[in-house]
Specification:
Two copies of one chain form a homodimer. By secondary structure, the first copy, chain A, is an alpha+beta fold. Chain A is built from five helices and nine strands; from the N terminus they run ββββαβββαααββα.
Chain lengths: 231, 231
């Protein structure tokens, strides 16, 4: 038996908001591409493109991200689907938006396919953006700010080994608020999934601080037992 | 200038997981429809249908919900977009899923258009479901359980005036765990957006309890000042 459905159909695209943390500049950044083609040729936009008929939206998001920016192996999560009727001058295009968290040092970015350029931009100094990509970014920032408080997402933005100062700076940058150092350390060290590596940071002028790592397996075990992460 | 895009396109549908709380039965329920047409004719499914070209996904979700079940004026929020390649036997259909919270007493449900029947089902006794609707429901339950802890969503499931016992039962039913009565009352009464109406419940055999209401304006003001809701 076959089911026909002959009404007009929208196109379906994916777009990715990739966050990176620049600890030297105390800055949260987003990866943008400069569009090669119309509409918005030479304008800045989120990496993304049309979903193919034989792939899921998740697969499309990872494929477009790799094709246009070279970025692979990031934490990626669906954000929200944007469906305003006039959001794309090409006609009806629904965009399934994702956000990703990248370790800045891991990724050598390079523009390709539909992108003539790719660059990290501070969320405080974004260029004018194509389509409704500013609204997508605003939604992603809001989600990130909400979620870092109750899920151990932040570690995805840090190098595998980090100091407690770096961890605190991460939260201060993302949440845009100062945290009390003593309270922060007390709270974070009470979380047993933060493991002292026994190592210290290298090549610093000040007294070398201890390096910690996030033990995901331990976290998942605690979460199963009812532990609620909270910053 | 026109931009042509001639690749094949998926169909885009919306589906709604409507939650209702049955305080008499201590039960969390979901509104299901029985399908009139193939595929899955006479099978139970979520209310939903295809998005039209001149409406957003939000509009489509509210329209389908009203058309198929008669339910209007509910708290509605986008949940997740489901895009498995083989999720619909009619071909490629992407579904933008929503979840809604209904005050059970407000809604007289009635089946219409593509639904031959509509009914509330306990989440503990769901029938066999069409498409990937079981997976959509599982995602919605997980979202609801997570979000009632850090956002004042639960009030959407209660009558406008409620006792503290009802409020506690709400959390116990949704979270599937017992809460300590003294701690719960202390925590909830410290939240200044819970307002004593001065009224008491009517027609009960036991001592009539005070009725409270949720003051959304006060909550939003406190949230702006940095207050974090937490159960």
């Amino acid at each position: 038996m076959s089911y026909t459905y002959d009404y007009p159909r929208p196109s379906v695209a994916v777009d990715c908001v990739v966050f990176g943390l620049d600890l030297d500049e105390d800055d949260l950044e987003i990866l943008l591409i400069q569009r090669l083609k119309d509409p918005f040729a030479h304008g800045w936009a989120l990496p993304g493109g049309f979903m193919q008929m034989d792939e899921t939206a998740d697969t499309a998001a990872r494929r477009e991200l790799e094709e246009e920016t070279g970025v692979t192996d990031v934490y990626l999560e669906q954000l929200y689907t944007f469906s305003d009727v006039a959001r794309d001058p090409r006609g009806r295009v629904v965009s399934i938006a994702y956000y990703a968290l990248a370790k800045l040092s891991d990724h050598r970015i390079r523009a390709a396919t539909d992108a003539e350029n790719v660059a990290w931009y501070s969320i405080r100094k974004l260029p004018r953006l194509a389509f409704d990509h500013k609204a997508i970014i605003d939604t992603a920032i809001e989600r990130l700010r909400g979620k870092v408080r109750y899920a151990p997402l932040g570690f995805e933005l840090l190098p595998p080994k980090f100091t407690l100062s770096q961890l605190q700076r991460l939260y201060e940058i993302v949440l845009e608020q100062q945290l009390d150092k003593r309270n922060f350390r007390k709270k974070i060290l009470s979380m047993e999934f933060l493991v002292d590596t026994g190592e210290h940071e290298q090549g610093v002028a000040h007294r070398a601080a201890r390096l910690y790592r996030f033990d995901r397996r331990k976290y998942l075990k605690l979460a199963k037992q009812g532990f609620n992460f909270g910053i």
